Structure formats: structure tokens, C-alpha cells
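Quick sanity check, DUF4350 domain-containing protein:
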Amino acid sequence: MSADSSRSSPVVRAGFFAGILVLSVIVGTVAIGGGAQSAPDVSQVNAPSFNSGESVATPADESGELSMSADASGKVVVIDVAHAGDIDREALTPLVSTLTENGATVRYHVGERQSGSPLNESLRSADALVVLGAEQRYTKSELNGLSAFSDAGGRVLLLNEPSQASPAGLGLFGPIRSDSVTKPMAPLASQYGLSYGNGYLYNMHEYDTNYQNVYATPTGETELTEGVDRAVFYAAIPVQGGDTALTTTEQTTLSKTRRQDTYGVVARSGNVATVGDTSVFTQEFLYRADNEQLVGNLLDFLVTGEKSPADAPRPPESGNSGPGGSLPGAGTGSGGVLPSEPDATPAPDPNETVMSDE
């Protein structure tokens, strides 16, 4: 081998490998460029995470106006906050404002612990009562008084919800502790043939932006469902008994049992109506789907009863507990009882917040 040949051999080999490297880069560049040009659109990719077909979030329309059809002039609606937990009264503004704008007077029953009247005494001058997820138990006297009140034609609206499912600020209540139904509501509802399931409802297949926002539709045409095609409830509880007015859509699941079914969330039993949710009355949910129509129907329900006698539940006669039972804290101070014929329209208790259209 010549000296020239031996000197050129490394150069040739270096050039050979450099050529291979350049060729590889060119081929790689062409391949990458070709791949970028032919990449399918995201909508063409068979990606279950984008379009699974298993769950559908369908946000409800947010429109409408809360209104009433009934004339509420002269009607008195009492909201019981004495037995409830931490009620966000500001969240009740749409309910209170609509009632008062239509002529009703709205009072907050604060109870004897805040130097207010006993419940039975507050009911005598009332036409309707709203109960918000009671956390303090009702005494036997109060339960008897409520029964006499509704038997006489007074209207009662029971709003209940599971505990832990609703974070602070979303419903009418403050922070809560468990996902079980507030037990003080059970004996109150049961005397009207109503009850609540434990846990909360959710739907992983059809929901409004969040799987806990379940849809419900009417079971038929009733006073409570007039104008309602679909309503939205946040982590509601099942309502049993009475005449069911709205049920959740299919494949709704109860958290306690994991059972998929349709569940009642609004029902009526005579002069008593119940809703397994409080969020429908709040600003966040009031105007979703047909919620404002449902709430308007519930307000009409409250003011269209005719109570007779007007002062029911009447105080007990001497030596007789009567339908209203004994009234705690309402004695004469010497072991006597209240007069049997009190003023049918007593002045509002100074410790009750009174709002009217005047």
C-alpha cells in the first residue's frame, strides 16, 4: 500500500460517515415534515377522553324571571330559622322579595331561645310555614301544632338536603358534617306520610356541568309542575311518599346504595309539599333550566291555602292538651293557660323579622 493511499483512507472513511449522517438528517426531516402535514384533526382522533359517549354534560339555560301567578295580599308566610342550622338569609332574598312584592308579609320565626314566640303561637297568625332542613328537633307540642295547622288549611313547605354534599355558600346552609339526612326532619315529614333517603343523588351519564347537578322532570301535570319541562337540583336527596311531582332522569345514583334509578325529588301530601334540595332557591341555581318556574309554583302553593279556623293551632283548653299541645314558655306564670279565644291577628313578635310590600 502506498503512502498516499494510507493517508487518504481516514479522509475517505470520514467523508463516508459524514455522508451517511447528512442523508439521515435529510430523511428524518422529510419524515417529520410529512408527518406534520398529514396529522389528523383532534376531532378525527378516536379518543375516549374527548368523546366517550358514556357521560354527557349538558349545561342548562340560565334565563327567566321569578314570578307568581297567585295574589298573596294579606297572606303571612313564616320562615322557621329557629330549628335550622346556619341559614344564609341573603340567599333567601329572591323568595322573600317575590312574596312581598305580591302582597305577602314574611316573618322569620327565631324561637324562644332568642326571646321570640313559641312556634305554635307564631303559626296562629300565619297562613304558611317554610321549614329549612331542621337541625333542632321539634317538640311533641310543636309537631301537634303543625299537624293542627296543616289540617286547618295552613300550607307547609319542607326543604331538606343531605349534609356533606353541599359545600359552604352553595346551598342555604353553612358548613355541614355528614351526608346523612338531618334527623329532626324525619318525624316532622313522617306525620304527613313523607320521608327522605340517606345520601345524595348524582348522575354520571347526564348532568348540568357537574355530576352532582342532576336533572329532574315532571311525572305529570300538577300545580307544582305547571310550565316546568326540566329542573336542576344540586346533590339532592330522594323524597318518598305523597304524590311525586318530579323525578330525576334515568341512571341517577344514590350515594349510599350506589343504585341507579329514577328518584323523586319533589312531592306533595295535601297541604304539605317537600323538596329534597335547598339550592333551587339560591341565586346560583334559581334561573337554571325551569327552576324559576318551579319555585314560582311553590310560592303560589304557599299562599293559596284557606286556613279555618284562622287562628289554628288554637291554644289548649284548661285541663286539655288540645290539638296544639301545651305551649312551652306560653303560660300565665301561675300555672294557668292562655285564654281560649286569642286575637286572631296578634301583632308580630318584635323578635321576628317582618317584611311586607308596604
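Posting the structure with no commentary besides this: DSSP finds seven helices and 17 strands in the chain.
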